[in-house]
Design goal:
Elements: H1 11-28, H2 34-41, H3 45-57, E1 61-66, H4 69-73, E2 81-86, E3 92-97, E4 104-109, E5 114-118, H5 128-146, E6 153-160, E7 163-165, E8 170-174, E9 179-180, H6 185-193, E10 198-202, H7 203-214, E11 223-228, E12 232-238, E13 241-243, H8 279-285, H9 299-311, H10 316-337, E14 341-345, H11 346-349, H12 352-366, E15 375-378, H13 383-395, H14 403-418
The structure holds zinc ion.
Length: about 425
């Protein structure tokens, strides 16, 4: 008998997909019943029950008893309801945020809560391999002192300002760090020290993924995240999926044409948004730059100076002026993509003066009305959290969960406990 299977999906790959769907639902709706799960995922109750049984056996989810709150309020004694929820310390994900602001290595639990983190200082960004080894060692130290079981870590997420090919684990180019075509060296160096799968992603994309699953954009399928700090970039989500463009080139908002400035962008032009709506643009206005061309060797200086400027109440006006410069780009994004929501993220993007200036300029010059168009909101997830959440999204709540590994680990722990 020929089974019509146009997608080419095998039973094994289908099982992985279904497992990812069920796990995502349980995470999004703690306390959900097997019957609700089956209905929402479009499975038979028998199929849903079988997957749930597997996830319970691998100690990834647990049965939770909750009393029905409505009944309690009505003074009826609510019948305790048994539902399913993610076992918080059932699985963990770890992350590396490569940044000139606050470099951070972190661990989050299966629910996306930060479990442990550490800020390694004085990172040398000059060489890709050296930087990778530095971060990997810092992460390994954190894993060691946090006492979590390495067998329960799903993978490593890396978030950085670069164009990447996550499926090949490669950095294509980073104008910001001055790296190009690393041939997968960054990820390979990490794997030599921490033997786990590594997902590497542009910071704006990593933040977009994290906001979609754990933050401001839950249940929003069309949105754009703008990450504004020293430079500006975007992560675009459509139909609940990241839009990468050809060779991961989407979201290059920083090279949108804007007013000409007495500065030079990494691309050689003088009229990029990177020069007017950003931390780099702000520092130039404040007379903090003695050079007109962006210089990779000074990214730590740019970061520290921007953080200092954002703390200074006398500079609120200057910060607002660079915020005004972002508004026309957002209007273009909205007209092209029609997002429900635009999220402003990053040290500059979430700054109150910058954010308010973007909002008021949109209303004043572009007739922006949130009721008719997109909602402008501040990001709820920091760059430092985004890396570990990226790993959680990739290696836990998807068809890439290595179920057999965790099922085996659960059996082994059980045996050693009873043995
Ligand atoms: Zn440019």
């Amino acid at each position: 008998m020929v089974i019509n299977n146009p997608s080419g999906a095998t039973p094994a790959s289908l099982r992985k997909t279904h497992r990812g769907m069920i796990l995502s639902r349980i995470q999004a709706e703690p306390g959900i019943s097997r019957a609700e799960l089956a209905r929402l995922c479009g499975f038979s109750e028998m199929a849903a029950t079988r997957i749930v049984r597997e996830l319970l056996a691998a100690e990834i989810i647990e049965e939770a008893t909750t009393t029905n709150r409505k009944s309690v309020r009505k003074k009826h004694v609510g019948r305790p309801k048994t539902g399913l929820r993610i076992l918080k310390d059932g699985l963990f994900a770890v992350g590396i945020t490569v940044s000139a602001y606050h470099s951070e290595v972190s661990i989050c639990d299966a629910d996306g809560q930060l479990f442990a983190s550490c800020r390694p200082e004085n990172v040398a960004f000059g060489d890709v391999s050296e930087a990778a080894r530095f971060y990997a060692n810092a992460l390994q130290d954190l894993i060691d002192i946090s006492n979590i079981d390495v067998d329960r870590i799903v993978g490593v997420g890396v978030a950085l300002s670069a164009r990447t090919l996550p499926e090949r684990g490669e950095i294509v180019t980073s104008e910001y760090f001055g790296w190009s075509n690393d041939g997968g060296r960054f990820c390979q160096e990490i794997q030599k020290i921490i033997n786990l799968p590594v997902e590497i992603e542009n910071i704006a994309n990593a933040l977009a993924i994290a906001e979609m699953r754990f933050g401001a954009a839950r249940d929003v399928s069309e949105f754009t995240l703008i990450h504004a700090a020293t430079f500006v970039g975007a992560g675009v989500v459509s139909e609940g999926r990241l839009v990468r463009g050809a060779s991961g080139v989407s979201g290059s908002l920083g090279h949108f044409r804007a007013q000409k400035q007495p500065l030079t962008c990494v691309c050689g032009r003088h009229d990029c948004l990177n020069l007017s709506a950003t931390g780099f643009g702000l520092l130039s206005r404040l007379g903090k730059l003695d050079h007109p061309t962006f210089d990779n060797s000074k990214i730590s200086y740019y970061a520290t100076s921007l953080l200092t400027a954002l703390e200074d109440p006398e500079l609120i006006g200057a910060v607002a002026e660079v915020g005004e410069n972002l508004a026309p780009a957002l209007d273009n994004v909205a007209k092209l993509l029609g997002p429900e929501m635009i999220i402003l993220s990053g040290y500059l993007g979430t700054n109150a003066s910058y954010f308010d200036a973007v909002m008021s300029t949109l209303a004043r010059d572009f007739d922006h009305d949130p009721k008719l168009s997109f909602n402008l909101v501040k990001g709820t997830i920091s760059s430092v959290e985004a890396a570990a959440l990226l790993a959680l999204h990739t290696y836990c709540y998807s068809d890439r969960l290595d179920y057999d590994r965790f099922a085996r680990a659960a059996t082994n722990t059980g045996e050693s406990m009873h043995g």
